């Protein structure tokens, strides 16, 4: 009885792995512009993704790193996505959590890494101002010129800081 | 064989079909993306493995929608698909039955009044009220080995008294039944 339960869990994990491998292939062959993702190490259940801001938006030319964590019940349950690069955005909090309906109650088993990353990419340029996680960014959104200025200041500060820390790491090693 | 390989490679190089799997993905489950196993199709036309769809429905008992088009969907509104070559097609929906409902049994009780009136067996106990009266007479008249004191010895005054009493009761019973029939 216990053995068969273990077997079924293994089988389920195997099915999830298969689906994730398929998604990886689809993502790499689709050549979607401005998004990419790849498993982090050997663990198929944790990926690192990057999103570039779409051209024509204030996020143009800005790149963001995200972590994607897949539950064992994927795709029945949604993938957990978090910004790893600090992101100044009305719907992203200071910890990188994203408020996006398709990652929560509107999740469907049909969504995959590609559609999730594309959705987050379009969320960057089209925030939902009515339910903000970052109220200050939501207030500032009306004034796009000022918003872009603050955004770039914050981005440059964060990127420089992380660049400094990597340089420090190199010096140490 | 080689022709197949060439066509596949040209297809994947063709910018118009960036995803080769779109071509053979027609019969893949919309949840696990594999060729559907125990396939069922929804009323809105979307194909799933029954185990995949069952899991999807189980986790959302209050909001059962098609993962593809968000149309309403339920166990009774999907059609199993039987391909050729399976001699005993079995409805996949029967293979993964929903969890059986919980069963609740009555606790064993020492309450002596529990079996009064409508008993557990469904027998109505005819134990009080005027309806039982004539049968009580018959029981005491014709049933002598029921553990009560036996009949008094014959020709004793007690016996004459009892016979008189039982005759009185018998007549009362007969009159009562007669009255019941007339009324």
Descriptive overview:
The complex is a heterodimer of chains A (about 170) and B (about 180). Chain A is α+β, with helices and mostly antiparallel strands. Chain A has a 4-stranded antiparallel sheet with strand order 1-2-3-4. Chain A has helices at about 1-30, 115-125, 135-140, 145-170, and strands at about 35-40, 45-50, 65-70, 80-85. Chain A is built from 4 helices and 4 strands. By secondary structure, chain B is mainly alpha-helical. Chain B is about 35% helix and about 5% strand. Chain B has helices spanning about 1-15, 20-25, 50-60, 90-95, 135-140, 155-180; strands at about 40, 45-50, 80. Chain B has a 3-stranded antiparallel sheet with strand order 2-1-3. Chain B is rod-shaped. The termini of chain B are far apart. The interface between A and B is medium-sized, with 17 and 17 residues.
Beta-strand residue percentage of chain A = 15-25%
Name the strands of the widest sheet of chain A in spatial order: 1-2-3-4
Backbone CA Rg of chain A: 18 Å
Q: What is the CA-CA span between the terminal residues of chain A?
A: 51 Å
Q: Percent of residues of chain A in helical segments?
A: 40-55%
Task: Give a short account of the largest sheet of chain B.
Answer: 3 strands, antiparallel
Q: Distance between termini of chain B?
A: 98 Å
Tally of helical segments of chain B: 6
**Rounded mean pLDDT score of chain B:** 69
What's the overall geometry of chain B? rod-shaped
Principal-axes geometry of chain A comes out as elongated
Q: Give the helix/strand class of chain B.
A: mainly alpha
Bin the strand percentage of chain B.
5-15%
Helix content of chain B: 25-40%
Unreliable runs of chain B? 1-21, 97-101, 117-124
* Structural class based on helices, strands and sheet pairing of chain A: alpha+beta
The greatest inter-chain interface is formed by: A-B, 17 and 17 residues
EC number (chain A): 2.3.2.23, 2.3.2.24
Protein name (chain A): Ubiquitin-conjugating enzyme E2 C
Active site (chain A): 99 (glycyl thioester intermediate)
Organism (chain A): Candidula unifasciata
């Amino acid at each position: 009885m216990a053995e068969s339960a273990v077997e079924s869990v293994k089988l389920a994990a195997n099915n999830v792995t298969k689906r994730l491998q398929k998604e990886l292939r689809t993502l790499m062959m689709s050549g979607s512009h401005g998004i990419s993702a790849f498993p982090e190490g050997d663990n198929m259940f944790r990926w690192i993704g990057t999103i570039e801001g779409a051209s024509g938006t204030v996020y143009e030319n800005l790149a963001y790193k995200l972590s994607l964590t897949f539950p064992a019940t994927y795709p029945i349950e949604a993938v957990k996505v978090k910004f790893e690069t600090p992101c100044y955005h009305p719907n992203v909090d200071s910890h990188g959590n994203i408020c996006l309906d398709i990652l929560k109650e509107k999740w469907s088993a049909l969504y995959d890494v590609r559609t999730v990353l594309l959705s987050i990419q379009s969320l960057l340029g089209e925030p939902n101002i009515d339910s903000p996680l970052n109220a200050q960014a939501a207030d500032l959104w009306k004034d796009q010129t000022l918003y872009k200025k603050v955004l770039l200041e914050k981005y440059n500060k964060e990127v420089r800081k992380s660049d400094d820390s990597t340089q420090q790491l190199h010096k140490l090693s | 064989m080689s022709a197949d390989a060439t066509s596949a490679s040209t297809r994947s190089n063709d910018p118009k079909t960036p995803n080769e799997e779109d071509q053979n993905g027609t019969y893949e489950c919309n949840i696990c993306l594999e060729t559907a196993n125990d396939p069922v199709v929804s009323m809105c036309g979307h194909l799933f493995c029954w185990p995949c769809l069952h899991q999807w429905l189980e986790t959302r008992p209050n909001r059962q929608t098609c993962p593809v088009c968000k149309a309403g969907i339920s166990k009774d509104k999907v059609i199993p698909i039987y391909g050729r070559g399976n001699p005993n097609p079995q409805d996949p929906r029967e293979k993964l039955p929903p969890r059986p409902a919980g069963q609740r049994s009555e606790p064993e009780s020492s309450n002596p009044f529990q079996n009064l009136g409508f008993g557990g067996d469904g027998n109505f106990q005819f134990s009080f009220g005027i309806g039982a009266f004539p049968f009580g007479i018959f029981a005491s008249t014709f049933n002598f080995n029921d553990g009560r004191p036996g009949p008094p010895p014959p020709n004793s005054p007690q016996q004459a008294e009892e016979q008189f009493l039982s005759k009185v009761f018998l007549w009362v019973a007969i009159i009562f039944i007669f009255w019941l029939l007339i009324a």
